[in-house]
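Email to the structure team, subject: Sulfite exporter TauE/SafE family protein model.

Hi all, the expression group asked for a predicted structure before they design truncation constructs. Nothing fancy, just the tokens so they can compare against earlier work. One-line instruction: predict Sulfite exporter TauE/SafE family protein, return tokens.
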Amino acid sequence: MRNVVIFSFIFLLLCVFFYAITSTKIEVSMKNEAKPFSYHIKALEFIWSHLGYQHVWPEMEFGWRIVVGTLLGILGAAFGSVGGVGGGGIFVPMVILILGFDPKSAVSISKCMVTGAAISAVFFCLKQKHPTLDEPVIDYDLMLLIQPTLMLGISIGVILSVICADWMVTVLLIILCLVTSIRSFFKGSETWKKETKMKEETSKLSSESSATCNGDEGYKYLPGCVEEGAAKNTRKTEVNFLGNIYWKEFVLVFLVWLAFVILQIAKNLVASCSVTYWILLLSQIPITVGFYLYQARALYQGRSAGGQHTHWPLHHLFLASICSLLAGIVGGLLGTGSGFVMGPLFLEVGIVPQVASATATFGMMYSASLSVVQYYLLNRFPVPYALFLTLVAAIAAFLGQHLIDRLVNIYKRASLIIFVLAFTIFISTIALGGVGISNVILEIESNEYMGFENFCNNNN
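Reply from the structure team: attached below.
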């Protein structure tokens, strides 16, 4: 197993450096090419210069760029929605290198695509039931508990992303994605082995008793819980989504999102780093604490959604707040979004793959849409182009969810979700890491300043 880890690490580094060298050569060669092919180097020059930000928006016209970009968008949304990571690690390099947008516009369009994919995937998940329990596949209790601190962490991470140099963010991004993808792969392998053992035990039980699991009813059991799959074989796995929503928790999560949206809108209407600006920025803290304490108190007293009466111990509540805050900071700092951290984190703490994917996607829908609102107010993306790519991502995400649901039901292996998650993060590591390294190389060649930045001077 150690050799596998070492080989994976070496292979990933080689892929990242090869991608970075290729990207750098492409960008440098574009200096001497015609105007339609000079978008990338222009975008990099705009970002690296200290003359201010100017966007680069190519015309939306049919050609190989939009065809290839659409295909990559479909793949990214399909794989990203399944694992609950959104696909932003694939969207950003695609929009920069294929479609020709500048990096800031690419991030904005990527958030639009992630939001569209997340909304589509959540709509699919709203009709799904938990694989073993008679409750929705989305864990509303967990989402309401972590959403306030997650949103606060994203705000902190965005501030840090403005202050930190590009090379710092690139190094952290590669390390995080590398560790996460490897851990997810091992988690998937472990779950696969448990499922294999589970199927063998179920096969033995079916040959000895008539009380067998009906394979046509969907994936109902988990590794190590043979009796639950048999006990729940009469439960529907898909219901009307209106009756499958815990409306109280759903509305509260929406109110958390709405509160942060209002603060973001108000913050953009005042001067950067003014007294009013910092008051609005710091007002996120009492909102976060208020919503968190409300849900933490309810879970501690056993008042969970659906009347399950599950008591959460204090140390679990505290750990959830710390992990979600750190996840938000990392997601905001690296620009990957909350799903890149929350999805693998949910799996690490033992949450069922279907629930981990659905819950991470549900939270990502709110966090990504918050960024979209802010980017729209800042006029960071062309609306027609963004709408087209968002629609493509939404359709692909729904089809991806439907496909993985069928595969899990057919093969009785939820570990497929984990493997898709690990693969998506691995590809994102190569793409984002390669683009990041190529940017750093060009910055070094241009003798650009590569230290910490002033937040107030760069917060535009």
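Residues 1-14, 16-52, 211-235 have pLDDT under 50 and may be disordered. The chain has one domain: 38-200+235-458. Ping us if the truncation boundaries need rechecking.
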